[in-house]
Amino acid sequence: MNKIFRLAATAGLLSATLTFMGSSPAFAAGYVSSEPVAQYSGADRMQKLVAGAKEEGKLTVYSSLPPDDFDPVIRAFEQKYGVHVTVWRASASGILQRAISEGRAGRHEADVFETNGPQLEAMYREKLLQPISSPVLKSLIPAAIQDNNAWTATRLNVFTVAYNTNLIKKADLPKTYKDLLDPKWKGKLGVEGQDSLPWFAETVHNLGGQPGIDLFKQIVAKNGVSVRRGHTLVANLVASGDVPMAFGIYNYKVQSMKEAGAPIDWFSIGPAITQPNGVGVAHMLRHPNAAVLFYDFLLTDGQAMYAAHDMAVTNTTVKRKLPDVAMQIISNKDIIDNQAKSQALFDSVFNGT
Questions:
Q1: 76 phi and psi, to 5 degrees?
Q2: Number of domains observed in the structure of the chain
Q3: CB–CB of 253/231 below 8 Å?
Q4: Is the pTM of this model over 0.70?
Q5: Which of 292, 288, 312, 327 has its CA nearest to residue 30?
Q6: Which helix (H) or strand (E) holds 246?
Q7: Does residue 87 have a pLDDT over 70?
Q8: Residue 347: which residues within 8 A CB-CB, separation 6 or more?
Q9: Is 307 helix (H, G, I), strand (E, B) or coil?
Q10: One domain for residues 145 and 209
């Protein structure tokens, strides 16, 4: 009996191991632990993953990526391995809420989570994610690897300021946040209000804490800041001129629209706040082989497809389009630890609560 079978028998996880080895009784019976598959590092790892995934035949992914960005990756995986992928889409916070609710109820419908770093960190703390042993990790940038190894960054989301190039000249762009107190910005400012909390928290910290909060309150009081939810929505509002300038927007979304001919561009006031976002495999699930195979796929083949959509990917072997700006990579642990306080500050500044 080899090592993986001894470990599985000791832990009462033999059925999960048999699933990995190509049998299906555990899968047919319901949820299994992904640990035996996720931690296997034998020379035949990929061969076993592919065989097991083909037998499972399907996979469920919870993702907050827009369809235009994620669907090409899904189709490529399905075509390569013959595994059908079902995607449930929601905001990052919506995915976290559903994952926790299902987990506490003993339901484990998602095999893989592809979403924002803070939400993945929160899932780890709820013991919903399984650390992975994968040879692809050695090809990633250091910021992609988490201390807990329970999830891995597939891309870096770079928060920037988007502006309408027909309405605002590059020479007139603000160089500091204090410049936004100028009356010429009245009625022209917006902020993404769904996923930009990390940008706000880190920016306020960079501005000295309370002085930064006071400054943003002054900007809102003097010139107003429209709060809109969703990076794609806000980028479209900037391009249409409804919101000439907006904070906390992912640069890749703006860059893609710019390259498509939209009157939009981005810049950063100070270093661009950068958040590692990525993928995590569920600890309890139905399709362990397909889940780990998809995890590897996102960190290999999927990286080129992400890069084609102007995302800052994390695999160093892939030709990357990194933003030409200084990036300040945030700690998702700190974001989660201070989330309630940061949300209250954001609401007090932008929502008047």
A1: -65, -40
A2: 2
A3: yes
A4: yes
A5: 288
A6: strand 245-250
A7: yes
A8: 353
A9: helix
A10: no
